[in-house]
Specification:
Radius of gyration: 11 Å
Number of helices: 2
Helix content: 25-40%
Structural class: mainly alpha
Order of helices and strands: HH
Largest sheet: none
Distance between the termini: 23 Å
Number of domains: 1
């Protein structure tokens, strides 16, 4: 993961992406336009940590 501050294009994702990147994973790219904006299942550490903290 990049640490440059650019957020993944999926609204619920906590990951960062390279400059000009769009999504951190195929999952995020495929689900970016879905109405399920309250969770991210990309499998990366930032999102897994958030889901565990929220008790999901």
């Amino acid at each position: 993961m990049s640490d440059n501050g650019y957020r993944c294009g999926h609204a619920a994702c906590e990951c960062t992406v390279p400059t000009g990147g769009g999504f951190c994973s195929t999952w995020c790219e495929e689900h970016a336009s879905s109405s399920d904006g309250h969770r991210c299942e990309c499998g990366h550490e930032a999102c897994e940590h958030r889901m565990n903290a929220e008790g999901r």
